[in-house]
Amino acid sequence: MAHEAVIGLECHIQLRTRGKMFCGCPAEFGAAPNANVCPVCLGLPGALPRANHAAVEAALRLGLALGCAIREESVFARKHYFYPDLPKNYQISQYDRPLCVGGALPVGDAGGERRYELERLHLEEDTGKSSHPVRAGDRPFSLVDFNRAGVPLLELVTQPVFREPAECAAFLAALRRLVRWLDVSDGDMEKGQLRCDANVSLRPVGAAVLGVKTELKNLNSIRGVEKGLAAEIIRQRRLLEAGNPVEQATLLYDVEHDRLAVMRSKEDAHDYRYFPEPDLPLLRVEGPVLEAARARLPELPWSRAARLVARHGLSARDASVLSEQRELADYYEACAAAADGRQAASWVMTEVLRVLHERAVSIVDFAARLPAIRLGGLVARVAAKDIPRPLAKQVFAWMLEEAGGVDDLLARHGVRAMGAATDLRPLVLEVLLEHEEAAAQVLAGSTRTLDFLVGQVMRKSRGQAAPQVVRELLAAELARRSAGEFPPRAPGFAP
Amino acid sequence: MTGRELWRLTARALAAAVRAGECTALEAVSAGWEGPAARWEREVHAIAHSDLEARAAGAGTAPHGPLAGVPIVVKDNLCTCDYPTTCGSRVLAGYQPPYDATVVRRLREAGGVISGKGNMDEFAMGSSTEFSCYGPTRNPYDLARVPGGSSGGPAAAVAYGLVPLALGSDTGGSVRQPGAFCGVIGLKPTYGRLSRYGLVAFASSLDQVGILGRHAGDVALLYALLAGPDPLDATSRPGPPPDVGGWDGGVEGLRFGWPANLWREGVDAEVVGGLEEAAAALERAGARRVPFDFLPGEYAVATYYLLATAEASSNLARFDGVRYGHRAPKSPDLHALYTRSRSAGLGVEVQRRVLLGTYALSAGYYDEYYLTAQRARTRIRREYEAAFSRCDLLLMPAAPTLPFRLGEKLDDPLAMYLSDIFTLGANLAGIPALSAPVTPAAGGLPRAVQLLGPDDGEGLLLRAARALEVRGDRARLDRSHEVEFTWPTKR
Fold this sequence. Notes:
A: 10-stranded mixed beta sheet, 3-stranded antiparallel beta sheet, 41% helix, B: alpha/beta, Amidase signature (AS) enzymes, 17 helices, 10% strand, globular
């Protein structure tokens, strides 16, 4: 009997607010241990929580973007379990009346999205962080850092809508893009800003009833989610095929060793004893607040991608790449405003993304150095056949390092003095005519001879031309010849 | 004015003396300790933590505000950064908070000085102040009897003269019942009027900081200074608090409910006699008695103990020995650390309630117990609302008995719980209530009544308390007659 997997995800999204969920302590990552704490997030006797409205606003943004129904009155609840990193031994969360209900996340390229339905989205507080350092000679001990305790979290629970681990990975990537797009979270899985647990069960293909599920905890990378689920599906399939039952359990997945370990079995399952948090009033989201949040919502990534296709004639794939990040899409569109959309896309996707990758800089930092309007100007000149693409690449490189428009840069590097690339060409053609033998050698593969030809052109320009530009012009001209094109006649030379 | 007399003054008169330079704040604060406490404290044991240096420091920095130099006892469950705050529990032994409760901060800003931390039933769970890890507090009017609880320490300290005012907490009657047993006024304000920030929670939805004082005017003064919204307490009531400045304005035309069905049985004759006396005094002062039967939910006690224990089991989860307070030494693992620390740190009554509350919130029982109790609570609140459509205030007993003997109910939790039967309704309904003394019973024991008002009815309650203070004599309502108080005599 063939089995299919049914998977549901629980994602924890750390909200990027200045303060914590229920107090004013900084919610930043990376401070000295226990530097960002106060009586509230330490759970000291007598301290009381107060809801951070910035976190509520961020939750509303994500909820609205996902098309969730927003509850006008939602309820904070206490979830009880004892653990040293949980200062009150209960977590303030939401239970039977969460802030956001339903909704769906579209995943995939424009036009071909698959929508994954959600169950709910609710606000809660993060726990502290335990560590168990091992020091030679010491009795075992544990340390707890409460900086993270009380940092706002948004828990997103999907319906059991996934069949393949790869779908889950794509979903997580899309969720990460969305939370960053909305400025809700930095979504860095390595820093724990986006965490994922998965519930998975197998059932005979076509069956309507779900099988016994297991929960995989702490899948802290997209790869981990995909690999962990794959491993668990294999484990469950082997059990079922051997006629053994799957037992309800919570498992930990070790991505390094591709190993699953049981964290707790069904008997050890917690009774969380949820009840409404009496220290906090109902969380009310009045109509006007909701409308204001809706009005502040930016164009969503999937709408943006669709618009890039419709307006700039991009392929769905390219539109997706450019909509990966809101600032990138903004950069692209600012660039496209000054030039042809497809050419701008090509420049942004090849040159800009390459630089971002090579230099490990963000698009924001990149844009500060090379504003889209400058790049757009360059792309427009290329489109107008004013500057050949090889020269344009050189100009792009200069733009990254220096200030000034295209013409300023050409002038500064001696190209402009020669009347730009078009004005260098007569010199190039002249040199090629004078040194036909050398040209033939270059075509045969001699780079040293190319250096010689560059030197000749440089001499004729009295040192005004940029060697790189000359080199590219020479190479382009020779390539054209080898392809059998007729050389344009140099002015002043009779055939 | 000499130090010997200062402790007899009202808070208002004492602050005026300090502001006028007739005495220093330190003299004002020390008066109770050098006067009556020297005779009483050793036997009554009202104070859990006292500290000469902290008192002197407090007096030295007290601003010349409305409470300039007025010493105030604060119950041991209100956070103070200059005194330990231990809730009468071993589990918090030596714990000193890094912050002041909002009410403590406000009273300091008005010039008040902490005189000491009042003894209490552990985590405010009890009605006799016998459940304290520091040993019981005794009733100054009869040392063989309890002062009531859980704010027995603060009530007794006000009664014997250590301080003119004290702060307690009232979850089911813990200010009103000890107030009644010690012959002082005990006010439980409307839920949310006094900030709970820094009050170590017992049952968050029922807890309210309360005021104990010898005179209605003093209680009104402190209430006016402490009440009002607190951004640190999300459950504090928004908007300006009720004006209690007219506490000496009399009760002419006021209708007080007279639900005599409540004391037809199970209530001491002396208590009923006190009710008759109070009603007569209010009538003399121009108020009108409105008799009707009142059934504040047959199930109020059950409702209260379900909700209070459920919330307590959650609120007390944090006392685990990990971050502060008592930690069992040499625990082999985490589970042992928790169970040993809590078993050794929490007393028997607290453990009983934590277990009850944990059970009530367990999967499978939650709907039956917690949710049912919540629905009952809503109905009880509606019954009080209905009552206040027929009258302005309700007059009823504060407790069914006079102060009982130490140990009398120690082994009978249910009997102990029933001593809250008349007080816990106000906590369930969130309404204000106060206990006010009337003439002592035949044996000299304090005797009191309880008055309940609608939301924000503190002004009316204090007017009525003042009318009772002057036995309904309209000519003596003004502030010059504040000195009358029945002091305990040493037996």
